[in-house]
Amino acid sequence: MDWEALLASAEGPPGLATLRRAAGARFLERGLPSPRDEAWRYTDTRFLAQQELQLVRPVIEIDAPDGVHVRPLEEALDAAEPFLAAEAERELPFRLLNTALLRDGLLVEVEDGTTPEKALQLTITTTHGLAVPRLLVAVGENARLTLVERYRAGSGVCLPVTQLSVGRGSRVEHLRIHYGSSDVHIGCVEVQQQRDSFVASHLLTFGGRLVRNDLSFHLLGSGAEVQLNGLYLADGKQHVDNHTTVEHAVPHCDSRETYRGILGGKASAVFNGRVHVHPDAQRTDAQQSNQNLLLTDDAIIHTKPELEIYADDVKCTHGATIGQLDREALFYLQSRGLAHDEARRMLVDSFAAEIVRRIGDEPLRNELTEAVVARLPGMLAEAA
Amino acid sequence: MLEIRGLEAGVKGKTILKGIDLVVNAGEVHAIMGPNGSGKSTLAQVIAGREQFVVSAGSVKYDGRDLLELAPDERACAGIFMAFQYPVEIPGVSNSYFLRSALNAQRRARGEQELDAFEFLAFIQDRMALLNLQDELLNRPVNDGFSGGEKKRNEIFQMAVLEPRLAVLDETDSGLDIDALRVVASGINSLRRDDNATIVVTHYQRLLNYVVPDFVHILVDGRIVRSGDRQLALDLEEQGYDRIAARAA
């Protein structure tokens, strides 16, 4: 893969040329991550260097409710400026690459006090090549938004970056759903929360050849609260890596993180949950849990909590579990007449449902419930 | 209905049941009593089909069929029900969804029409009243956060809905206060019929004041050392397991 040639030939809005060049130069200098890099220890992306990737423009279907303004990035460069100002100095290589190739961006704005009745739904389809969608979302004060990013991918490489800014007193429910198969999906979500804001983040991954998500939540105003819910399902030789970071920068903020994984076949997964409590962030309440269900002996999970606490008056808890299906529960269900397969499906389904039921929007909750139901039989048959 | 001959069974190479003979006919209530560790619960679980227990000798026939050949769910569909000593908590699965799935699995096996959610609700109404269960218990996850008494009532409620031919109640009285015991016992009694049978496994005589057995068997160290009628349970309470067992030996 000749990255230099790719960067040189890529087209984009003239107003972003300087930014693109700077990000491109930094990407070339740093290169793809190596497994020696702690954050990429279990996720090897070097095979990308062996591929000849063509830059493609993703197909983005937009369903925007009243009260939500969506504009192409090139028509909204001024409004995008606060999001993009520091993008050429980022650490994550694939985020830099997204910036270096920036073209298909959307800017979403929800004005102060606006409470749209329905969700903003974006469905991004990629079938081949390299796609770098970018979503910038500015939610004003005392507003509401339900935002869905739905990625459908057969193969190819998608490097989506989403930046979300949530104003004082606003409430946002954000779903990032990835219906993958043999694709590569390396995504990034960055959320900035002001005072008394609430964000429920749901990351739902249904597999892919290689999936990596880096999510960071910056609690910048007191009273801000974030819920991080994650569900990842993988089988075959799929690999899913979720890295989350919560920055407790100020006092009196809460974070609740619950990530669950179901792994079959020879799938592998990584959960790395970092919670950073800054020196001033007294009265922080941070909870984290990561639970994994392994359906086969060959499935692998690497789970790691990473707590950095520099304040003394805080509540921080974390816990991780790795297990098989509960035999007691299986026998209990069978003893009532449910066949072994049906009992297994019910237990695995209920494990996933604990995450899905946290989705507030009912139609979306139903969509995900069905997606889990549709995905499980194959995973269970393979594991049987 | 149930015919157990020379049954030996154990777990991980340790023999717990050392030759059990027991015949249970339709319409009968049998009580199995014994001290802790005598094998009462093992017997119940072997009948229900728990795979951890390995049968090394003997036979169990149910309506003339080899019960030991059947998987736990096949036994349930054939009409066998065990009320668990420690009902399992299953977070994330609602009680009503679980029970409807189980009932429909059994109905399918019998060639009967499945019940939809509305038909199911109508079907269970009077059974809930029988066990004094509140509606909200239906929507809660199976046994999750239930009190000890709620769990036991939920077991008998399941029994009332599934209408087994042979019910095995494993220490259903343990952990119940006297009011809950009455509710559970009257539930069990109202389900007694000429065409079904019940095996009550218990440590104490107490439950048998309410659920009156036709036969009482004393199990000590994996063997039935004495069998008799209800009077045997009363003698046992007065004299204790040691003397009854000693007299049998």
List the helices and strands and how they pair.
The complex is a heterodimer of chains A (384) and B (249).
Chain A: H1 3-9, H2 17-30, E1 59-63, E2 68-72, H3 77-84, H4 93-100, E3 105-110, E4 120-126, E5 130-131, E6 134-139, E7 144-153, E8 157-158, E9 161-166, E10 171-179, E11 184-193, E12 198-205, E13 210-219, E14 225-234, E15 239-248, E16 254-263, E17 268-277, E18 285-294, E19 300-309, E20 315-323, H5 327-334, H6 340-356, H7 362-383
Chain B: E1 2-11, E2 14-24, E3 29-33, H1 40-48, E4 54-62, E5 65-66, H2 72-77, E6 80-83, E7 90-94, H3 95-109, H4 117-130, H5 136-139, E8 141-142, H6 148-162, E9 166-170, H7 178-190, E10 197-202, E11 215-220, E12 223-228, H8 230-248
Parallel strand pairs in B: 3-10, 3-11, 6-9, 9-10
Antiparallel strand pairs in B: 1-2, 1-4, 4-5, 7-8, 11-12
Molecular structure report:
- The complex is a heterodimer of chains A (384) and B (249).
- Chain A is α/β, with parallel strands linked by helices and 384 residues long.
- Chain A has one domain (3-325).
- Helices cover 22% and strands 40% of the residues of chain A.
- In chain A, the strands form 2 sheets. In chain A, strands 2, 3, 5, 6, 8, 9, 11, 13, 15, 17 and 19 form an 11-stranded mixed β-sheet that branches.
- The model of chain A has no long low-confidence stretch (mean pLDDT 95).
- Chain B is built from 8 helices and 12 strands.
- In chain B, α6 (148-162) runs parallel beside α7 (178-190).
- Chain A binds chain B through residues 326, 328-329, 331-340, 342-343, 346-347, 349-351, 353-354, and chain B through 48-51, 71-73, 75-77, 81-82, 84, 87-88, 90-93, 98-99, 101-103, 105-106, 109, 141, 158, 162.
